[in-house]
Each structure stands twice: as C-alpha cells, then as structure tokens.
C-alpha cells in the first residue's frame, strides 16, 4: 500500500532487525560497512581467512554482535504506517448525491412539462372511485416519476449503509493499515527471491574451465597432438578453367535429366532454367531460387545455392548467420519434403516479408503526410489499415493477409490453389469485393493501395449519390445537368458536378485523407452550410442532404435577391401564420413567400424548391369578415384562415433564360398577371354552373412567362340570382353576346398602380356603327373587329376578383346596346356611347340633344363580394338606374325629372321605349310652351305658369287671370290626342268674362289640328301647338279683365317670381311626380 515502509518481522510476529542494505522506518542501517562481513559470518557460519578457520575469533566476535544487537533492540512496540490516501469526508458524498438528485429532478420536471396530456374523457368509476386520466401520455409521465423515485431511493439506501459502516471507520482503518503492511512484506520477499535468482544466473557467465596444461605443453613442444585421429584426407587439386567448364556442363546435364525424367516439379516451379551447374526457379513477383546437386544419383537431394527477391522494395539476405540458417533450413526441407516443401517455405517467407514491408510503409505514412488519417494494426500475418478514422458511423478498413487459395477462391486469384496476398475490404462496416483494388505484387506501395481503395470508396459514394440524384425530375429530364467523374486509382480525380440553377453549379468531392465531404461553389452559398455536417448520417445520405439543401436554398435565394429591387418583398411565414409542411406537398425543401405593393392583401406568391422541381405558387389567404377591407397586405395581419395554394409555374425561371434584370422584371410582371387571372378563376370555381378554361390545375404561366387568358361561358339568364342585375323596366333582357368571354391581363397602369384586366367578348350581330359611337373619353369600353367584338377595361389590385363587377358591366353593356337599338328604331341619331352615358339627337333634323345617364347601385369594383354570401341571397346585388338629361335649348328640359322617374318605374307607360315615344309625343307641345312663356312680362295679365305633373299631364296657370287649364294626352277615337279642359272647378268668381271668351273661342270653335268639345278641346299630337297658341292669344286679348272686386284685392293674386324671357332656369321640386316649372 502507498506510504507503508517494509520492516523485518520474525516468525512469532515480533519485530526483528532490518535486512541487508535495508533501512528501518526510514532510518539508515545501524550496521556500517565494516560490520557487514561480520554480520554475514554470523549468519552463515565461521569466517574463513585464507582457507583456515579461526574459531576463537569467531566466538568472540559472535558475542560482540549479540551484545550490539541487544543494545539496538527497540523497546517500544512497532507502529504500523497509517494510510490516508483516497479517504474523503462522508459529508462530501452526501452533498454530491443530494445536488445530483436535485439537478436530475429539475431536468425531469422540465421534460415532463413539455408532454401535453389530453383532457380526461370522463371515464366510468371503478369500485366507486374515478379512474382518472388514463391516457398514454399521462401514464408515461407517471412511470417516469416512479422510475426516478426508485433509482434515487436505491442510491440513498447505499448512503445509509455507508453511514452505518462509517461508525466503525476507526477499526476498518486499522485493518487497512495491517493489510497494507502484510502486502508490503510479501512484495519484499518476492523481490529478495528474484534477486537471488538473478545473481545465480549471472554467476554462470563467471565460470571458467580449468586449463589443460598437458595438451598445451604437447602442442607447444611437438606441434601436434598424438591423441587426435588422422583421417588421411588429401586436399583436392585446383581445377583448371576447362575442367571447371566440364564439371559445370556435367552438372547441367544431370540436373536437366533429373528434372525432365525423374523428379516431379511442382507447378509453381515449372518456370526454370539450367545454367552454370545450377537450376534457377523463377516465381514472378516473388523470388528466384538457385539449386544444385552433389551426386549423380537420381535419389540425391538438391542443395540450396542462392535466392534473390523479385519485388521491390526488398533487400538481399545478408551473408552470415541469417543466410547460414536459411541455407540449413532449405536443405533440410529439400531432403525431407523435396521441391514442393522448399517452395511452400520460401513462398510463405516472401508473403510474410511483403506484409511486413507494407506494414512498415503504412507506419511511415501515418507518421508523415497521413498523420491522424490511418489506424494500423498487425495481427500475425494480417495487416489491418483503417482509413477515415475521424468519420462517425460505420468504420472502413482494409485487411491485407495471406489467402490459402484452396476454397472459395475468386476469379482474380493469380494462382488458384496456391496461397497469395489477398485483401478483405470492409467499406462502411460491410464487406465488399476487393477485386477492383489496384495492387502490383512486383512493386509494393502501401500509398498506392490506399489511394486505390479510397478512390474506389469515393467512386462508390459519388456514384450512389449520382444515381439517386438522377432519379429526380430536374436531372432526369435534363433541366439541370449532372456529371460525374470517377477514377479507380486516384481519389483526387473523383468528383460530382451538380448544376444548382441555370447560373450556378456545385462540385462535390471527398477529401482523400479525412473522408470529409467538400463542396466547391459560390462562397456565400457554402457559408450557410459550413456547420451542416450530419455526423449521424452515412456519407451518401450526407452528400444527398447537403446537395439537396444547397440546391434548394440557392434556387430560392436567387429569386429573392433578383426580384427584391423590383418590388417583390419576402414575407415571414410566421407572420402569415402558414405551415409549409401542410400547405405544400412532401419533398419541398425550401419555401419563400412574397408579396407586392400592387397585390391584394389576401394573396401571396410562394417559391418552393425541391429536387423534383422548382415551382411558383399563389396562396389565397381566405379572408374573414374582419379582413374584407383594405386592398393591400399589411404586416401583422392575422385575420386569415384556411389558405389554399395552387401551382402557377413549374419553374422559378425559364430554363432557356438567365436570371438577369430583364428576366426578373418579366417574372414579377408575370406573377402579377397570373395572380390576377388566378384570383378570378378561383372566384369562378366557387360559382355553381360556371365553366372556364383552363382549369385551376392547368392555369399556369407559359414557358416565356406569358400570362394565359381565362375563358368562361357567360349567359345572364344562367347567372345566380344575386348576380343578375335589375334592369330598368322596358329594357330587353335578351343576350347580345356569344357565350364565351375571354379575360386577359394587359399589364399595369402606372397612374393608379393597378393591374389592367380586359374582358373580351363577341357580339352576336355585328354593329358597324358602334366604332365611331364609342366615346374616347371613357377607356373602359373598346369596340373591336369593326363592331363585331368588344372589350371591357377594369383596373383592380392584383388578386382582387372582378367577376362580380364584370357580370354587372356585361349586363350594363347589354342594356346600353338595347337602348341603342331602341334609339335607332325610333329614328333618333346616336352620337356617342359609353357604359355610363348615351348621347343622341332627336327632333326635326335632329336639332335637339340629350343623353341617357346610366348608373348602378351595388358593390364597387374595390369591394369584396363573398361568393357564399352572395349565392345565399335572392336579392340582386346590383341595380341599374337610368336618367335622361337635355341641353338647355331642348324643350324637354321641363319634363326632364318626370322622364327620369318614368325610366326607372315599373308600370305600363314607363321604360326606355315609352320614354323615347314620349319625346316624340311631347315635342310639339313643349315647343309651343316655349313659345308662349317668353312673351309674358311682369306687367301683363298673361303671365303663365306651366306645371308638369307627368310627361303627359300638364297644368297651365295664368295667375293674374285666375285661370287654370288641364292638358293631358288621352286616347280619342283610337288616336292619341291632347285634351285641354278647364281646371278652375266650381270657383268662377271674378272671371266670368274670361270663361265666356274661352268658351267661345276655344271650346265652341275649331282650328288647324284642333277641335272644341264644348267643355274642352282636343288637338292632334303634331298640331297641339296651334291650340296652345290660340289659348294664349285669347288670354292676351286687351279687353279681358277681372271683375272689380277681385282687382281691389291684389293680395288674392299670388306673387310670382319675376321671370321674363328666360327659359334656362327651371326650379324643380323633387321627391314627387309633380314638377312645377316656372317661366
């Protein structure tokens, strides 16, 4: 034990004197050097001096030693060394255990807190007690707590045992001291025995034989020894050159005859040549063996002459002891086993020598350039070289050993049935064929073998990665190039070239010494994957994983960097609340979401990248009620749910285009267009009975980034009731268009920052007059193909559906065309036309001008119309309203408001056709009213007021004459005529003279185009002006006057506005069908 000093103890256990040359308890030996001999003599017996014994001196000296021993005997008991090494306080162990228990309990609580336990389903009680939550998660948490408690309980039980044992620590410590003392004594005894044995063995070398003086004297005196026998040998005569040649030729003949006729030459030794009195057997790549014979007998053996190795690096066998031992060994084998035994021995010697040479070369490599890259071990005759030791996972190594060649030999064995050097290659923990390893048995090079093995391993990894990558669509259809270069001998020539995008590529190789995968490409691409080495993956999986991730990251980052300057802004998926794993199909490695200031906030574009292709998607963020306002996307908006994604392009960038500014600009333009088209296609898909082409799955950008058109069938009669526009009464609802409508994207309007959507349609009947009629001031309507087609132009944010408003505009256009046809049928002249206004001329020689004002009540183009809400309603979303307005010179300005009201009322005399008929019917009347109103002045009694109650009902009032007349259009004798009647009623006070005069001149008379009826008068439509002028002329007669009592009361005459000679102003009272016009 440490710290214990050895002391001598006698048999009884008492302390004795120290041994020779020993210290006692660290003190020097009490016997000095002069006393050592005396001490030895006392132990071993008498001391001899020059071969004589001195007994007296011995006895005296013994007594002296005994006296000294008594003097130095210790009187106090011996104290054992106390051992304290390795002891520590029990409190430290307890504190450490408690701290460890606390830490593990905290970690366990944190881990269990992450496990979500579902709510209890309310299980039935068992034996009156509730079963509690029996879910697998809850049970798992309880088991973890129980296991932790059991483990800690066992640990604290051990502490309890230790605490009980520590109460006897003093006795145990004493026992440890005794055990240490005993062990030290045993070690001392063993050391003494070993020392004595070594001394005895060394004394053998010191022994010298006694000299033979007799034989030495004889040799020195006579020069010979008579006792030695003389065999009588005579030295041979030296051979001449001729004799030597003759002997050699004879040996050649003897050897040739023996090998040809008598001896059985093994197959490995059949390549030989006889020369110079010897036979030389040549085994390629191994050695040349020279043998010869000593006798002519065919039974005599061959004798070893020389051997030369035929491989490099190798050195010749040095002359001397080694060569002599080899000579004797080979001769013994030739005598006992013949040529075959000799070959087997030398063959095995050569194979062992080769393995040792390769081992020495491997060691030299591991100490030089291949430091820390090789692990070398030599087991008997098997050399194991492990390469790539720093790589995790299954290891790879090469075993070089001797194969017997007897069983299971491969086709690559150089000599079947003969042992040879062979390889056992373990690649990533699995044995594979080693036939392809390049090995030159004539020129041994461990570095070349390693390079060949590593090159084959590298080729295998890159080839497997190549085959796996080739299965992906991007490489199988040659969208991206994939090239591999392999080499069976040089690992530096093995590489895999992968095209990541149209402008970027990557080179994959494997570092020969460390086995790490290296990627060569654009620097900033690799910076993101420097630490992305998956140590738990195999090499092939790591190559595929890193190449896949890098390709996908590069593809998306190129788009991000190229389009950022063009307004395409990336959006964090967490802000959108989207999960790409649920939104996109499996296999997508990289996703980026983009938005644009021109896009609707409920749509985003997504670029996804995978090994099967790069795609552009449009993602619809389904709006809720709280998110239906606001045309643009805003950061932080979370009012979306149920997103839907659709592919709009199978490539991020067309394969034939390079990613430059022009391409990025076209890409952003195309994405804006396809988003606008796709939003409308999505809207149509939600509508029942609507068919469109292409379908949502086929609606994608063209190869040249062209936005496809959307074609859908349209018929106002088949639309849902909510999308059928309520047309004014009398407008024909017959369809004016062919069924197909083509919706196209026509770029971006720079002023409004909106996309331009054009809806193209074809008229059933060509209207050539439409081309000059369409107003150039309104760009929303365009006539195409010389009146055979049309186009509606709408400006909306990209992603905002125009379908609802487009249905309204199409039906409005049908209404416009219906009004146009009505104008033409009525003989009026259309002058201009748009979706909001139709200008036309009417009257004689189209002298007067007017226009229809068309407006719609309902959602605007920027409003969001939910399809489900709209379909659930039966009331139409839109309602068209017509208005008519006249120029100041038109006589119909008096009835402009009644005509507008009549256009939108639903009764028999309302509608466009009736209104146009009223224009013709009322024109002569209104022209005559214009003639009589400017003739009055404030001083005349004939100031007249015209009150238009309806377009066909008028009240003519002469306030100063207290006369009212009712004029209306009625049917008389199956003809429409104007009928004039007295509207004063029973109150005729003060106007007897006027009534009599009117009765005489109007009611009892007749004129051009009019006739009196006694109580009234009728006039034809075209001649009513004569009746009105005759009435006004009668009331302007100078002899007519009111009665005097009426004249005395001027307050009875209503005060009227002073209107003289002006027809441009017409105060109107709205909100009723009665319109009062004062002139």
From TrEMBL:
Residues 87-294 form the Mediator complex subunit MED14 N-terminal domain. The keyword NADP does not apply. It holds the Pfam family Med14. Keywords: Activator, Nucleus, Transcription, Transcription regulation. Its main location: nucleus. Component of the Mediator complex, a coactivator involved in the regulated transcription of nearly all RNA polymerase II-dependent genes. Mediator functions as a bridge to convey information from gene-specific regulatory proteins to the basal RNA polymerase II transcription machinery. Mediator is recruited to promoters by direct interactions with regulatory proteins and serves as a scaffold for the assembly of a functional preinitiation complex with RNA polymerase II and the general transcription factors. GO terms for cellular component: core mediator complex; mediator complex. InterPro entries: Med14_N, Mediator_Med14. GO terms for biological process: regulation of transcription by RNA polymerase II. It comes from Penicillium patulum (Penicillium griseofulvum). This is Mediator of RNA polymerase II transcription subunit 14. Belongs to the Mediator complex subunit 14 family. Coiled coil: none annotated. One of its GO terms (molecular function) is transcription coregulator activity. The keyword Transcription regulation applies. It is found in: Nucleus. Component of the Mediator complex.
């Amino acid at each position: 034990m440490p710290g214990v000093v050895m002391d001598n103890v006698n048999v009884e256990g008492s302390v004795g004197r120290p041994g020779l040359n020993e210290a006692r308890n660290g003190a020097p030996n009490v016997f000095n050097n002069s006393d050592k001999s005396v001490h030895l003599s006392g132990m071993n017996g008498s001391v001899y001096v020059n071969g004589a014994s001195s007994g007296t001196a011995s006895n005296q000296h013994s007594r002296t030693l005994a006296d000294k021993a008594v003097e130095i005997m210790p009187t106090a008991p011996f104290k054992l060394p106390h051992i304290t090494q390795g002891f520590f306080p029990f409190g430290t162990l307890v504190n450490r255990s408690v701290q460890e228990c606390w830490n593990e309990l905290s970690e366990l609580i944190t881990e269990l807190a992450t496990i979500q336990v579902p709510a209890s389903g309310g299980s039935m009680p068992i034996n009156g007690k509730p079963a509690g939550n029996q879910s697998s998660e809850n049970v798992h948490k309880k088991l973890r707590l129980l296991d932790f408690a059991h483990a800690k309980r066992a640990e604290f039980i051990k502490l309890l045992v230790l605490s009980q044992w520590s109460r006897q620590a003093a006795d145990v410590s004493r026992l440890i001291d005794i055990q240490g003392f005993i062990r030290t004594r045993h070690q001392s005894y063993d050391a003494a025995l070993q020392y004595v044995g070594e001394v005895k063995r060394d004394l053998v070398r010191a022994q010298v034989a006694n000299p033979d003086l007799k034989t030495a004297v004889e040799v020195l005196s006579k020069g010979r020894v008579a006792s030695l026998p003389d065999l009588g040998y005579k030295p041979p005569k030296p051979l001449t050159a001729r004799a030597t040649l003759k002997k050699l030729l004879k040996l050649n003949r003897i050897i040739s005859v023996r090998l040809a006729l008598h001896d059985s030459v093994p197959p490995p030794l059949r390549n030989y040549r006889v020369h110079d009195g010897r036979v030389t057997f040549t085994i390629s790549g191994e050695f040349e063996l020279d043998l010869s014979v000593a006798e002519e007998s065919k039974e005599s053996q061959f004798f070893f002459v020389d051997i030369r190795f035929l491989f490099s690096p190798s050195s010749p066998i040095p002359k001397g002891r080694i060569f002599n031992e080899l000579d004797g060994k080979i001769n013994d084998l030739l005598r006992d086993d013949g040529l075959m035994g000799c070959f087997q021995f030398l063959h095995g010697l050569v194979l062992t020598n080769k393995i040792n040479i390769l081992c020495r070369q491997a060691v030299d490599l591991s100490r030089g350039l291949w430091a820390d890259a090789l692990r070398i071990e030599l087991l008997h005759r098997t050399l194991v070289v492990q390469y790539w030791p720093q790589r995790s996972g299954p290891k790879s190594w090469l075993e070089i050993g001797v194969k017997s060649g007897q069983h299971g030999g491969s086709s690559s064995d150089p000599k079947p049935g003969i042992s040879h050097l062979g390889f056992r290659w373990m690649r990533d923990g699995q044995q594979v064929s080693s036939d392809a390893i390049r090995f030159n048995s004539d020129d041994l090079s461990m570095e070349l073998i390693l390079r060949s093995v590593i090159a084959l391993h590298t080729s295998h990894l890159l080839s497997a990665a190549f085959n796996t990558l080739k299965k992906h669509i991007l490489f199988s259809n040659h969208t991206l190039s994939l090239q591999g270069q392999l080499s069976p001998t040089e690992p530096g020539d093995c590489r895999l070239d992968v095209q990541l995008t149209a402008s970027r590529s990557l080179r994959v190789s494997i570092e020969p010494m460390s086995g790490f995968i290296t990627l060569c490409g654009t620097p900033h691409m690799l910076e993101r994957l420097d630490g992305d080495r998956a140590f738990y993956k195999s090499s092939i999986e790591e190559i595929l994983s890193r190449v896949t991730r890098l390709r996908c990251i590069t593809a998306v980052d190129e788009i991000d960097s190229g389009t950022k300057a063009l307004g395409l802004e990336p959006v964090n998926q967490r802000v959108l609340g989207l999960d790409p794993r649920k939104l996109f199909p499996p296999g997508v490695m990289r996703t980026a979401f983009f938005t644009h200031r021109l896009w609707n906030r409920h749509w985003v574009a997504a670029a996804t990248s995978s090994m099967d292709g790069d795609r552009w998607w449009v993602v619809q963020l389904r709006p809720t009620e709280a998110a239906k306002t606001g045309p643009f996307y805003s950061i932080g908006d979370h009012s979306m749910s149920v997103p839907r994604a659709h592919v709009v392009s199978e490539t991020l960038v067309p394969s034939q285009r390079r990613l430059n500014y022009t391409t990025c600009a076209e890409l952003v333009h195309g994405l804006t267009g396809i988003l606008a088209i796709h939003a409308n296609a999505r809207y149509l898909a939600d509508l029942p009975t609507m068919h469109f082409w292409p379908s949502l799955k086929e609606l994608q950008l063209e190869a040249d980034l062209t936005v496809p058109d959307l074609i859908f069938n349209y018929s106002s009669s088949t639309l849902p009731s909510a999308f059928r526009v309520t047309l004014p009464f009398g407008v024909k609802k017959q369809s004016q268009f062919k069924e197909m409508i083509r919706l196209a994207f026509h770029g971006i309007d720079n002023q409004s920052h909106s996309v331009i959507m054009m809806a193209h349609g074809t008229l059933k009947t060509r209207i050539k007059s439409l081309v000059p009629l369409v107003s150039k001031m309104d760009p929303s309507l365009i006539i195409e193909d010389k009146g055979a087609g049309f186009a509606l132009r709408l400006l909306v944010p990209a992603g905002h559906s125009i379908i609802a408003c487009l249905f309204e505009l199409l039906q409005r256009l049908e209404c416009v065309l219906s009004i146009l046809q009505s104008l033409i049928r009525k003989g009026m002249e259309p002058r201009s036309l748009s979706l909001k206004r139709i200008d036309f001329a009417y009257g004689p020689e189209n002298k007067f001008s007017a226009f229809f004002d068309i407006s719609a009540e309902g959602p605007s183009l920027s409003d969001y119309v939910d399809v489900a809400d709209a379909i659930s309603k039966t009331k139409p979303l839109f309602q068209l309203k017509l208005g008519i307005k006249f120029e100041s010179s038109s006589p119909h300005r008096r009835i402009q408001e009644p005509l507008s009201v009549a256009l939108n009322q639903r009764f028999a005399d309302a509608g466009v056709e009736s209104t146009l008929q009223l224009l013709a019917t009322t024109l002569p009347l209104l022209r005559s009213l214009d003639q009589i109103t400017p003739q009055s002045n404030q001083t005349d009694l004939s100031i007249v007021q015209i009150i238009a109650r309806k377009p066909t009902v008028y009240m003519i009032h002469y306030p100063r004459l207290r006369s009212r007349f009712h004029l209306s259009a009625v049917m008389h004798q199956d003809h429409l005529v104007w009928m004039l009647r007295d509207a004063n009623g029973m109150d005729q006070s003060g106007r007897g003279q006027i009534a009599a005069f009117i009765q005489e001149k109007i009611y009892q008379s007749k004129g051009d185009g009019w006739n009196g009826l006694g109580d009234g008068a009728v006039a034809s439509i075209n001649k009513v002006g004569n009746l009105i002028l005759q009435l006004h002329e009668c009331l302007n007669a100078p002899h007519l006057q009111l009665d005097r009592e009426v004249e005395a009361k001027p307050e009875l005459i209503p005060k009227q506005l002073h209107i003289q000679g002006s027809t441009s102003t017409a105060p109107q009272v709205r909100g009723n069908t009665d319109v009062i016009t004062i002139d």
